[in-house]
Write a structure and sequence with these properties.
Layout lengths: L1 H14 L8 H15 L2 H12 L7 H16 L4 E13 L5 E6 L2 E4 L2 E3 L11 E8 L2 H12 L3 E4 L10 H6 L3 H11 L5 E5 L27 E4 L1 H13 L4 E5 L3 E15 L4 E11 L9 H20 L6 E8 L7 H12 L3 E7 L7 E7 L2 H8 L2 H4 L6 E4 L15 E7 L4 H4 L12 H21 L6 H6 L1
Parallel strand pairs: 5-6, 6-7, 7-8, 11-12, 11-13, 13-16, 14-15
Antiparallel strand pairs: 1-10, 2-3, 2-9, 4-8, 5-9, 10-12, 14-16
């Protein structure tokens, strides 16, 4: 038994040493030190946010972001940099929205914004009685007789006692996405939706919505209302059921237009046909400059490849950064990347996404079989000095999701989420709300995980693995 213990210890020691004599611990230390003392992510984000701004799919700013990030990747001396064409939707907000209601003969102005993909009101706006509901079940109970000809006000807050704010978001986002489609079934003529925000403020939060298969002539305008105004409106409705609400928006949907995913690659030295990708989405909503969602993920992903080079690491596998276009209102970039990868028979063994803001990194979520997840848990102690402790199975990211297979691993960076929805899809998602050190810690954390997957690969599924799972 003692012989086998010594052998196991010797093997574990050997496996922790790189060809250049560097242990995994020292490699991670170099990566973190380089990011914190010589990072580029914050500089890139400054330009992306302040020189370009919001990057809605199909817009001029989205095109400028494609050109800028491609040029910056080319400066890194990667083996390949290219643009992958993709057709994307084009929707424009138009002039700033207006909304108000009368209470005790006083005009109460309201902060709203059109939801992405909504139709406009007519040029004179829309005015009608408004009825408050909290879910689709309540909508159904009220029925057409209580809804027809009215504006539906969805007022279900994010659940404040959930520690995971993403779970709180998931618990109420259906009213934003499908609210207009459901209300139109009962003859509603417009929809106002409480913003997906835990904080009480005056910023309305946009986001995608869908009409499903609803005929064009039955579609109704849909807008978000700030949390402060939603609270006040709810109180006003309790004292006046006949309250009249007015809103006007000028948005417009156009035909699809061409755009691009931006891709850069370091070709693997030993296994060039095994691919590891890291990425975020280049598009953003138009109200702010998309610094957290998802400028942070874009620049962190770009910096992963730079940090590998700066740290003297020669990848064995091909490492790609993919800056996806159109995550916010279509997922066209991710779908196209996955389609081309499958068409080319590319073996993507690992994909990592950053799309949860530039806040302090806490760890990762993984979509992986038990064997591969246990491999990840074996690396957990390497991250302990950097206070990275969250390693959970289940979930990855919208853009890497289409790449998932039975044999590979897809993952998402998980920063602290408590402040994320204060900014998500709102006009205060701006550069000054991103902390340089937190952003650089995230870039380093992503690079460290990519380094480990490049070095050790993934565990292939065997018959024994299938039986266990």
């Amino acid at each position: 038994m003692r012989y086998f213990s010594i052998l196991a210890f010797t093997l574990s020691l050997l496996i922790s040493i790189n060809v250049n004599g560097q242990t995994d611990e020292s490699a991670l230390k170099t990566i973190y030190s380089t990011s914190l003392t010589n990072g580029k992510s914050y500089e890139w984000l400054d330009y992306l946010s302040n020189e370009i701004g919001g990057r809605l799919s199909g817009s001029k700013n989205a095109e400028l972001a494609v050109q800028y990030t491609k040029a910056e990747l080319e400066k890194l001396g990667l083996d390949k940099v290219w643009l992958q064409p993709v057709m994307v939707p084009k929707w424009e907000r138009g002039e700033k929205e207006e909304a108000f209601y009368l209470i005790e003969n006083q005009k109460k102005n309201v902060n709203i914004c059109a939801l992405g993909g909504s139709i406009a009101t007519d040029e004179n706006g829309l005015q009608a009685n408004i009825v408050e509901v909290h879910d689709f079940e309540e909508l159904e109970k009220l029925g057409r007789e209580n809804i027809e000809g009215k504006i539906v006000f969805y007022n279900r807050p994010m659940q404040a006692d959930l520690i995971s704010t993403f779970n709180a978001y998931g618990g109420c986002v259906n009213q934003r996405y499908a609210g207009a489609m459901e209300a139109a079934k009962y003859g509603a003529i417009g929809v106002i939706v409480r913003s997906m925000n835990l904080r009480q403020d005056d910023f309305p939060h946009t986001g995608s919505m869908s009409y499903g298969d609803l005929p064009v002539e039955q579609r109704i305008p849909s807008a978000a209302i700030s949390t402060n105004d939603a609270n006040v409106l709810s109180v006003a409705l309790k004292s006046n059921k006949d309250l009249q609400f007015y809103f006007k928006q000028n948005c417009k949907q156009y035909e699809d237009v061409p755009s691009y995913n931006v891709i850069g690659e370091i070709t693997g030295s030993e296994y060039p046909n095994e691919y590891i990708i890291v990425g975020g989405h280049l598009d953003s909503w138009d109200l702010g400059d998309g610094a957290h969602d998802d400028g942070a993920g874009v620049v962190q992903s770009m910096d992963v490849l730079r940090l590998l080079k700066e740290s003297g690491i020669t990848p064995k596998r091909s490492i790609r950064v993919v800056l996806f276009m159109n995550e916010e209102n279509g997922l066209r970039g991710a779908t196209e990347y996955a389609r081309v990868a499958k068409e080319n028979n590319e073996n993507h063994i690992f994909a990592l996404e950053s799309d949860a803001g530039g806040f302090t990194p806490r760890g990762f979520s993984f979509s992986a079989n038990d064997t591969n997840f246990n491999q990840v848990l074996g690396w957990q102690s390497l991250f302990k000095p950097y206070l990275i402790h969250y390693f959970e199975q289940g979930g990855s990211g919208a853009d890497v999701g289409p790449l998932k297979t039975e044999t590979n691993v897809v993952a998402g960076l998980r920063p602290d989420s408590q402040r994320y929805f204060d900014h998500h899809h709102a006009s205060n998602d701006t550069f000054e709300h991103v902390n340089k050190r937190e952003l650089e810690l995230g870039a380093a954390t992503m690079t460290a995980l990519v380094y480990l997957y490049d070095k050790y690969g993934v565990n292939p599924i065997t018959k024994e693995t299938e039986i266990k799972n």
